[in-house]
Amino acid sequence: MRSRAGPTGVYVAAPTTAKRLILGLTMKLSKKNIILVITITAMGAFWVGCKSAAGIFGNLTSERESEKITPAEFELAETEGKILVLVNQPGWIKTPVDLRTGITKYVNEALKDKEKTDIPEERLIKYQDVLNARMELSEEQRNEPNLIAAKLNAKYIINVQILDFDLSTFAEKDFFNGMLKSDFSLLDANGVKLWPEKENRSATVEIEAEKGTVETATAKLTAATAHCATRYFYDCKTIRFRVPEENKDIENYDF
Questions:
Q1: DSSP secondary structure, 162-210, as one string
Q2: Rg of the chain over CA atoms, in angstroms?
Q3: How far apart are alpha carbons 170 and 251 in whole angstroms?
Q4: Measured in Å, how far apart are the chain's first and last C-alpha atoms?
Q5: pLDDT tens-digit profile of 138-165?
Q6: Which pTM value belongs to this model?
Q7: d(Cα 102, Cα 106) in Å, to the nearest integer?
Q8: Is 105 within 8 Å of 176 (Cβ atoms)?
Q9: Fewest beta carbons less than 10 Å away: which of 7, 95, 190, 234?
């Protein structure tokens, strides 16, 4: 091993070839470690950034979903004149509660709702007035929309046809299963259909294991039906377009 004089004149051992190799290898490993740490850190930051961006994008998407609108098919609020809600129920459909009263009431409430059509109450005709007008006509004329409209000076007729109805208790007397099926159209004072252009809109609403009374169970069905009849007359938020009663997947009970 060779030696050389140090700054003070003292001879010190010069590094051997082996030591040079070890020192060089150590420096190379240190550089690799530094590069590895930088790479891992960069990847981690990228992953966190992606997750944050995805979260923000997801929130924006959710906000857009809540703001989606199902456009009105007929702008009833843009019209003038009285509006008659005419509910027809075939004689063979027997009900414990008068469905015509409930549907008329809830349709009128929906029409005057400020977040929906916001139609002034003076344009809406109460069920009792509709009933009185019908009773003034002969029996064979009591379901004629144009004749009833003439009696009430109505310009528009929301025509609701009840197609089927069932309500029964099960297990215990205060639990109910029920179903109400109906279709809807809008007529002018002469009974000419204004909407929809082709087949009438229809809806089937159902309840399952609904706790309450005959009156409250029927009210839930008629209120849901009224929503289905009126949602086409205003720009309805898409998330509210369908009511839960339309989405029930109930079994076929023996009503």
A1: EEEEEEEEESEEEEEEEEEEEEEEEEETTS-EEE-SSSPEEEEEEEEEE
A2: 38
A3: 13
A4: 107
A5: 999 999 999 999 999 999 999 999 999 9
A6: 0.72
A7: 6
A8: no
A9: 7
